[in-house]
Protein 1
Amino acid sequence: MSTDATSRTSMLRTLLHRPYFWGLIAIALLLAVNSLKDPSYLAIGYNANTGSLVGNVIDILRAAAPIAMISVGMCLVIATAGIDLSVGSLMAVAGAVSMELLASAGGSAGAALAALGLALLLGAVLGAVNAVLISVVGLQPFISTLVMMLAGRGLAKVITGGQNTAASNETFRWIANGYVLGLPVVFLLAVLIVIAVGLLVRRSALGLMIEAIGMDPRAARLAGVNRRGLLFAVYIASGALAAVAGIFASASVMTVDVSNTGYQLEMDAILAVVIGGTSLAGGKFNITGAAIGALLIATLDKTVVFLGISSSATPAFKAIVIIALCLLQSQRVRDLFRARRAKTAPVTSDAPKEAVAA
Amino acid sequence: MNPTRRTILGASAAGLVAAALAACSSGAEGGGAGSGDPVTIGFVAVGPEGAWRQANEQNIQDTFTEDAGYTLKYAPATNLDQKSQIDAFTSFIDEGVDLILLSATEGSGWEESLGRAQEAEIPVILIDRGIEPDDTELYATRLAPDNVAVSTSVAEWAKSTFPDGAKYFVLEGPAGVSVVNERNEGWAQAMEGESAFTDLGSQTANWSTEEAKSVFETVLKSNGNDVQLVFAQNDEMGLGAAQAVQEAGLTPGEDVKIATIDGTQAALEALSEGTLSFVAEYNPLFGEQALEAVGTVLEGGEVEPYIQIESTTFDSPEAADEALPDRKY
């Protein structure tokens, strides 16, 4: 009994030291606030017609899927001490090319597959262009991806001829609106992709090597790490994941809006990564954290609407939540709290341990 | 030594720019029709935003052709960014165009740029979007359909369709844009004192179908699907709301009636199928009126500070079917 209790406290303690702990707390708080407004907020119903679970939480999971995709890509890029500002624009490109293809190719499943493949390919190619600019030409990631951010949206407009293109294709639509075992397909796909990427980088040496070039490129090179190859891998991954996000976003309404699809989502992705406990300076990264950060941003977006916060106050509300979260995460602020507590109570040995990222 | 070198460099750079400009303008003149100098017009435009804007800007471009004696320089904003518009505006002044057409992405912050145009004696005509504060001294005239009147027509329709009242939600464009303020104003004025109607709130969906769907699916949940009327301030958001209604297992047009503004082809098709219930047109095709106003202004004549463009409304599938065959946008 007592050993059980201690193991539970130690589990709690490791959780507390996880960088994404405060993100989880923030999600719980937001859900609690929503439940205060409407006690049945967390209730999940079942719609027999579509075979799907229905509820606010399901909506949040669905809304989090595209953000989680770009956040995971962003997380890998940031770990190499880079940044990818082009993900939002690449979403628009992927949406544009798939909608254009579907609008002309029609509603068959084959057309949907072709659109998927083409969008992913284009995302990966544009990611590779970023990688060339950064690792071969030697431009700074900020500048290279900023160029791609502007060029990408331009490209999307060229693809659709400046219009917002709509198409109809049941298979493609199913990706964002369908259900399997009652859960949204888009959420299941996102979870699978997050797990796949997580396993790939953590079960192999890939993750360590990415961290190595982010921490100290020179030491990594001396240790024989192939920096160029790794940079190609992460920027291509980020581009392809952005394409997945673009497919999710445009399939949801079967329309691509070249000015609005993915607009400023790179900021959401960066926030999600930071909330997840990955430092913008590069080095140690945390994929689970990035996914939780994405979930938090989706929860925040939905909360704003659910509480009926007025449109003009929305950005301020989001900013306040995020600033509060960053303050809680900051080591200095936590030290301040700890020092204050130490004055009133004797300290239990609580040396900050580096939590190994999952 | 150094200063001289810098002047020489500067002078040659200026020379280069001048040469480039001369090349530009001579090219433009060469393209003009033989009858006198073509009038150069700078069009500071919004760019890709939706089908309405596309129709509007295409119509302007098709009207001010070289055959009509105009050289139109089209400068769309980058991602609806006001800064890129101000840059384009300033370079048109420096270039010395004869007149500037302006569709501002945001209402405020134009005083300085408009003041500079005035100093350079370049008249400015506002197309569609107004400026805030609305200082009519700063521009020659504004051509636009009346947003307040259009959204009032939506409210009047709502009152006649729901004589016993309804619970309604408003999907707005981005906060701070003059169109949004005016559409809110017309709706609020007409709805004032209607105790049968319950305002469930309003939220921005940034003119986007995707965001409108996401916003409205949450609104439906937070009100237990008890919403009878949606006022979407553009067609795209209305179509997004309709998808959210369908996903919630309700029927748009029966359980939830959706009214939109703009009158694009996609919206009229949806009206014809019954997914939308009311579409108020916001007429984008006023190139002819703009041409007339530009002519008068350039000859030094007086024009009204505001020229209203007439719009119609569509309240039934039949009306939509009738208008669809020759819808241009």
Protein 2
Amino acid sequence: MAIRSRWRPTTRAAAVAAVAVLSFTTACAGAGGGGGGDAGAVTIATVANPQMEDIEKLTREFEKDHPDTKVRFVTLPENELRDRVTQDIATKGGQYDIVTIGTYETPIWAKNGWLANLDDRASKGDYDVGDLLTPVREALSYQDNLYAVPFYGESSFLMYRKDLFDKAGLTMPEKPTWEQVAGFAKKLHDPKHKLSGICLRGLPGWGEVLAPLNTVILTHGGQWYDENWNAKLTSPETKQAVQFYVDLVRDYGEPGAPNAGFSECLTATGQGNAAMWYDATVAASLLEDPKTSKVAGKMGYVPAPVAKTENSGWLWAWSLAIPETSKKQDAAWEFVSWATSKKYHKLVGEKLGWSRVPPGARQSTYDLPEYQKAAGAFAGPTLESIENVNVKQPGMHPQPWVGVQYVAIPEFQDLGTKVSQEISAAIAGRQTVDEALTKAQRYAEATAKEGDYQK
Amino acid sequence: MSTLTASPPAATPPAARRQARRRRIRHVRPGDVGIGVLAWVVGIVFFFPVLWMFLTGFKQEAQASTDPPTFVFTPTFEQYAAILERNFAPYFINSLTASVMSTIFVIALATPAAYALSLARIPRWRDSLFFFISTRMMPAVAIILPLYLIAKNVGMLDNVTFLALMYTAMNLPIAVWMIRSFLLELPKEVLEASRMDGAGLFTEIRSIILPMIAPGLAATSLICFIFAWNEFFFAVSLTATQAATVPVFLVGFITSEGLFWARLSAASTMAALPVILAGWAAQKWLVRGLSLGAVK
């Protein structure tokens, strides 16, 4: 101690100086190119999904063809992305030239005047806007104008283990009903051998449990709101549907269902612990990847099970839009049109593999022989599911918004989260379905009133 | 960790003390064993998640999400390769810049403030102290919108320096309180003696106070560094492409479509490494520094 203290002031001064120099140099390195000096750079905010990673890799090809445009990526998980982008656009921050949004946000943001109208741009040149799948295009339009273009789209369908069905002597009908699915689940459920009859989401979140549940509600003739924004969550049809879903997942679903979302069901099914799984069509390409899945080649795919309606799949498309605040809208469109073009789909196929081509966006993708070969197991059912979606009236009753598994109002993020928590609690057995729906109805009524939706 | 064997009271005669020591050497008391085992259990419980993260980073995605968990596997560097492919360096440099810069600012500002509030005792020092800590009472989310607008209007959105300023403001109250507690521990006699010898304020601070509280300053710096390094909310809200930090890079692996545990674990290991190294390097000072305010 005593020996050291003589040296301390000098060594410390040297250390401080060293750190100061270091921080100054790193500060310069970090700030290099900052402060809006990037005249030719477009910034894109994207969601952290595999398809987006692919585009990040292939952007070099775009930059080769467009030497004056550099593309910078901000990659965030779904919820952070939504918060971050909303904050920036609502305050006119103008940090992003391209944003990745879903079918839920597009009409709401278009109505707020936050997004650039893409109608003119998309109908010019060889973009071929007519090749975009119709339900997806409708979902991305507001007052018949296109405000976002699909990067990839999805519906929902039922995935099942062909080998287990064969072994049990069961046959999956081409268009199953929920009644039949419940019967299969009962027969195949075998918790002793770590096999659940079906995997269904139970995790709270409007994008989690509510997505599959809402399609079940719609096909049973239930609904969230009628045409005049009267909440209908305690109607007999809605109650019956929710009761059915909760019973099914409680009786023959995966263990830990109240905490299971897409990822958990993907793991369960991929590891061979679920005989059926009703979820997004994009799951198929993950289940068919032998690197991450033990059930590749053993899966069969049929349309979303129904009750009273003809079809019941949901519709979602991760899409690219250009905020009105962007000062580089032309450069942004260059990138957006490239990323959603036929050319890009071919590029992904050639460079990264045909099974990784973005699904559910363009009709022409499904005509490519290479894609048909690589994605044969699920390409057909995916396309069929998407094409059969009626986004304007997915259920038995007319609804005052466009969209299937959500209510396209800004308040739905909050309302949906609260309702999903009640449903999840019912799945966990902490309350009855009636109790959950009574509360949900109250939330929904309050939302309609506070948002001034009722005329 | 300090040893928990109680030393015999000073009043015991030397012979008895020696005997007691001999007894301790000969057979370990069951209580000691129990405490030793408990310490190990607690240590393992705290260390296991870190170890698990480290191991998971070397797995394939499918192995990382099995139930029951996979313990035996062939390690792969695939995940690390994928992370480096995503250009980790700029995020790392931004994090380092923001953390180091803010820590320097904090220490430079907090030390004189703490001096004024402890040894110099300015008027109304209690109110000032309370004011400092009160700035931590409002959650950051409540002020993010005004902050965002200010940053936008002064052209400092997506800027590392602005982030460093935020972290300085965030850590300053803690640092003031911590350094103040270290200063209060200083023996008054030493300060008085130095003044008697004619040391001025500057000499007193530089030659007497700073060397004595150096371990405390090291501990404070490390804590500020860790808080700044791990901070996510400001980083995700105020940056885009130029100034994004490591935590923002990390969440970019959390996907809603597919498995990501292995890659996230590998990225987290890389992110945690600098802090672990810094902590390890400062270990000796840290233990002294952290106990400085509490042990007389």
